Here is the input.
Amino acid sequence: MAKNIQAIRGMHDVLPHSSPHWQYVEQVIKEVLSAYGYSEIRLPIVENTELFKRSIGEVTDIVEKEMYTFADRNGDSLTLRPEGTAGCLRACLEHGLLHNQVHRLWYYGPMFRHERPQKGRYRQFVQLGVETYGMPGPDIDTEILLLSERLWQRLGIREHLELQLNSLGTTEERLLYREKLVEYFTSHSDQLDEDSQRRLMSNPLRILDSKNPQIQQLIANAPMLMDYLGEESKAHFSDLTDTLDELNISYTINPRLVRGLDYYSKTVFEWVTDQLGAQGTVCAGGRYDGLINQLGGKPNYAVGFAMGMERLLALLEAGNRLVNQPTVDVYLIVVGDRAEKASILIAEKFRNDLPKLKLQMHCGGGSFKSQFKKADKSGAEFALILGDDEVDNDKISVKPLRTKNDQQLMTHQEAISLLQQFGD
Ligand code: ATP
Ligand code: MG
Here is the structure.
């Protein structure tokens, strides 16, 4: 017998019992985003490989080893997007959206990285991305933090998330710091792993982002970027933290936070939980003014974040925050030849009069008893029962499934009035 074909490792199905949880979170996300006046942008999943190399940085985990890159039939090098910031900016530049304009955008969808699959780390995963353009901050930096915090509040998980902040300063400040960092790591180069050895010359800041537990102590004692910031970067950062203090939003300053991508400057942040083991960063982002120029645009301002939906859902599940809502309000039981003939029309009549009612009609026959069991299992509040008698008298029986109340025979109109509670 032929072997069953399976999904690709690290790429998961969302089955019908979980999709309502996703829909619930997606709904809350959309409500929060519109409360701040953000608009959706829909972007392609495949982009030219060059876009990611130029934006994320050649010497990053993503570009060095995680991208799904392939030659298409024309021989062009294409890549399944590993993140959305580059594509979003590419689209805005391409359509001239950045010229003297301010934008608050979001996108939602799958990203692809060839990582080692483990809990909270997949090869296909879903991100919500938020990107804003044209605002120098720090007011907009604060806004996107408040927006994400409001989302945690709405979802009831604020207490499980810690906000970590850092400032990466300007390119010039980082260059100065880079020298100090190279000096420090060179004097300890015997303790560096192979990746970090290689990055020492090409991209030493990346060493700070290493996940290798063996070099964490070395990283902890490294010079701190905070100590090399200029006046303007310092003022930007303290303005942000002052507002957070005023609003009573707690945070910790993490001077080692550099993020896994090269394009950040000034504010960077992560929302981190201790509930999910090693993969504890649920949402991460910051300011990346320089990227616009790097991709060919005029100097401008940008700040944004990306949120990992699988990690967010795992956190909600860990806190028992996901309730299973029944997908059906009413289950229509159909017994007898005349009833089977009439049932489709009657079901449509109910749907016409009650557009929001979730009515599932039994298909495929079977005894009353077996259909009744299915009605009960569906989670429906009521069973509508259509037998030949009901059809002959132009009536329908209504049986409450979750209370002890009796079954009642009524006209269609009476049943529709009774079901009005499910909305019209
Ligand atoms: P990590 O340090 O966990 O590898 P990252 O710095 O690579 O994360 P970003 O590129 O900033 O992550 O992506 C933003 C968010 O997207 C992460 O905080 C996480 O929630 C989620 N994410 C990133 N990679 C994965 C993955 N392979 N599987 C599931 N979620 C992911
Ligand atoms: Mg990563």
User: Anything to note?
Assistant: The two ends are 51 Å apart (CA to CA).
